Amino acid sequence: MLLRIFTGILLCALPCRADVNTSIAHFSAESKVLQQSWDAHAVKVREAPIQYPVAHLWLTGDSQTIQHALLNAQNTCLSTTLLAPLLLSTWFYYTNDHDTLRLVMTTTIPRLFETCAQWEDESGLLSPGDIELRKALLRWTESETLSYPVNDDTALNQIYAKALTETARLCRVLGQDDSLYMKKAARVQDALQAAGVLDTLCHPQDQQILTMIEDTLGLRYTWPGATTLAIQSGMVKEQGAFRLQLPNPKGHITVNYIPGAGYRYTVPKGVAVQITEKEGVPVVLQHESNDTAHALPEEVTARLTALGWQERVGDKRGVWIDVDHQRFYILDGLSLLWSRQCATASAGVGTITNSLKTPPGWHQISDKFGEGSPWGQVFRSRQPTSEIWKPGQDTKEDLVLTRVLWLDGLEDGINRGNNADGVLVDSKQRCIYIHGTNGEARIGTPSSHGCVRLLNDDVIQAFEQLPVGTPVLITATQQGDK
């Protein structure tokens, strides 16, 4: 798999835009090493967004930090670095801000390439000769140590080719002539190939977040406004399951990776997806709606109505857990209010005690535990303990965390009391909960021991919206045992 050239950039010191409303990415991994690596670098991005603007954009959706830098390029390293066109392209395809794009493309970018032209050799490659000039062309901040090698011109020209190609693409967006940049890019690429250099330059070691997002997962926006997402996923070896949620202007992009099962991508409605499949890397794609209250599709309304939704819920609040799609819905009447991925039992659906299956049918929330408890609070027999779980902690135990909503079956012989054979099928006695989990990396796939798992952030939100007595309907195409 060819890895894309680094598109991140560190900028000279600029004021941080602290007034921006941003979402925060969420990452959970079974691998302690992977989790700790991500957390450490996420802290760096949060503490210094102006030094890691592309990672900051991916993690928060805050485009104003980069815009501020682009509009003040004359006071920053952006006016002299080859990384400027790459940053501009990434930013534009997220924001669709044509006015800022046009301004930067008619000021900063032409001056940059005019400067580069004086260092081109006869083959079109940059050959500045002086190491300080190389550093200037690969400059992130004046205080940061460069991670790219600067003892020769290889990395410099790989980035030069990419910068020219991205600039040509932006010219086409604006309806401008791209021929100059395309010709230069072709010359540089031909010269690199003649020298035996392949396009394999990936993110430097201090950009692990971008390595994960753009190289391993192969994510890239290819249409202005972040409305088209390209996916080219690579295999993650010996890292275990992980789950990544990234903000998008229309909602969130969620990536679940399960060893042996491959990737599951969930994107908001209105975001188109271009998938490049790799042999041996299964990819499943699904779209989700946003959280704005709206009517359900007619076929869903008909299904819920046939199952007695009007009689049991009416115009009040209810929960629908769709096992087939591993989705948790909060509805007001038949209007969707809130929806998240969940995880039901890996053993499927069923009601018999000790089956480790999720019981189908009508339930209600009989009790709630954990109000005000800290994120990651460990519960045993519904009581808080002195333990607080944190991502990356090594434990094989299936923990009940953060909040607990205890379900009570409402259908005699199906999920309440005993069945016709006298076997216990009572959901409450089976201790079927909605709860937070230490298995966040597997949310979105059947992986519980019978309960309904939510992300710890999500179970807090669900807890606040669902009073005791709220009806809960669990459905599945395959009903399992009775």
Number of helices: 13
N- to C-terminal distance: 49 Å
Helices and strands: which structural class?
alpha+beta
**Gross morphology:** elongated
* Extended strand count: 19
Biggest β-sheet: count, sense, barrel? 11 strands, mixed
Mean pLDDT: 84
Radius of gyration: 26 Å
Beta-strand percentage range: 15-25%
Describe this structure in words.
- Strands 9, 10, 11, 12, 13, 14, 15, 16, 17, 18 and 19 form an eleven-stranded mixed sheet that branches. A five-stranded mixed sheet has the order 1-4-5-6-8. A three-stranded mixed sheet has the order 2-3-7.
- The relative contact order is 0.11.
- The chain is α+β, with helices and mostly antiparallel strands and 482 residues long.
- The protein has two domains: 1-289, no CATH class; 294-475, Beta Barrel (L,D-transpeptidase catalytic domain-like).
- Strand 10 (317-322) and strand 11 form a beta hairpin.
- Helix 4 (83-95) packs parallel to helix 8 (154-173) and helix 8 (154-173) packs antiparallel against helix 9 (179-194).
- The chain has helices spanning 32-47, 53-60, 64-71, 83-95, 98-105, 108-117, 131-137, 154-173, 179-194, 208-216, 298-306, 309-312, 456-465; strands at residues 26-29, 220-223, 228-231, 242-248, 251-258, 262-268, 272-275, 283-288, 294-295, 317-322, 327-332, 335-341, 361-369, 377-380, 383-388, 400-409, 433-436, 452-454, 471-475.
- The two termini are 49 Å apart.
- The radius of gyration is 26 Å and the shape is elongated.
- Mean pLDDT is 84; it is low at 1-22 and 141-146.
